[in-house]
Amino acid sequence: MGRLFIDGFESGSLDLWEVVKYGAYSTPLVIDSLKYSGNYALQIRVNNYDGYVQKNISNISTIYFMHRLMAVSGSHNATVFSVLDSGTSQLCLVLNADRTLTLRRGNFLGTVLATTASIATADEWIMIEGRLVIDPTNGIAQIKINGVMEIDFAGNTRGGSTNNINQVALGLRYGGASSNSAGLIFDDLVLDDSEWIGDSRIQALVPVGAGNSTQWTPTAGENWECVNEVPPSNDDQVGTNANDRLDLYSAGNLVGSVNAVKCVQLQVRCNKEGAPTPQNIKLACRTHSNNYESASLPIPTISQSKSKIWQNNPNTGANWTVQEVNDLEIGIKSAA
Asked: Nearest to residue 14, comparing CAs of 192, 204, 269, 236?
């Protein structure tokens, strides 16, 4: 399959995460300082209480991941990354008091499998990559720090009762100790089910003009001007009460030196009021003069974000090129 989910927090929100856990002294927050790339990063401050964000994914037993991490001065004894099966932690990576990282089976207090030699130097970014295969006998857990293999474990990697991974969490999901204290900053998270991810960055492209189709009604001004706010806002929007209405927008261009485009993920924030004719929404893109849509997604009654990944260009079936992304139109389609 390939890419499962990406988030560089460039929407300025945590709308794509199903759970955002705030403790009494623990706060996940999108910040516009201390980011590794782009304009935003995720900050999680933990002090004896759980503080994390959690993403639901389809059941898999093998996952590859990559994210940037900065552990600020004073950080220690906190979970950084966890994979779970319906709330039960299979494996987790823990930042220790000496700033090494320990892989544990189960949760924060689970069995130690291995510890890195490298440390997360205070207030410096590191790149963490992993390959995790859940199995009670033939499991694999490999962790790279800045491209160097630091943990290469084989054996029992199952902390629950099945081999499933269907949730991923950043931050302290289970404390269980009185000395959990950490300031963690995350950026450029990528999840995959088939290959190592490598050095990657996530760029956000927002609507900058009208696209090929303008069939929704804006609250004010041009359609594209109602859907380009970062962070997102409900002050203006587009709407429709008919099915099969397509709204497309020209997006901005990629910036800087881009060696390869690994995927395009479209993110849309939506909600419904009353009992509208459209009960679903499709995420759409237009490339090479053709339109492509996601499956129908139910529209919530409160504002939430939906996303769709196209790993390859749906027109060519090949990897996206920079020019194709720069020429891309993105949008939405109402559905029954």
From this structure: 269
CA distances from 114 to 168, 220, 321 (A): 20, 57, 40
**Residue pLDDT, tens place only, 45-80:** 877 678 899 999 999 999 999 999 999 877 677 899
**281 and 270 Cβ atoms separated by less than 8 Å:** yes
207-335 has CATH 2.60.120 classification: yes
Q: What is the sign of the dihedral through the CA atoms of 197, 200, 202 and 203?
A: negative
- CA pair distance 226, 59, nearest whole angstrom: 36
| The token pair that represents 109 in the structure block | 């207090």
pTM of the model: 0.95
pLDDT digits (tens, 9 = 90+) for 96-148: 989 999 999 999 889 999 999 999 999 999 999 999 999 999 999 999 999 99
Q: Nearest CA to 269 among 227, 239, 240, 310?
A: 227
* Under 8 Å between Cβ of 183 and 76: no
Domain ranges of the chain: 3-192, 207-335
CATH classification (class only), 3-192: mainly beta
Distances (CA, A) of 137 to 62, 133, 134: 14, 11, 9
Residue 53 contacts residue 89 (beta carbons within 8 Å): no
Per CATH, 3-192 and 207-335 having the same topology is answered: yes
Amino acid at 228: N
CA angle at 238 for the pair 233 and 242, rounded to the nearest 5°:
140
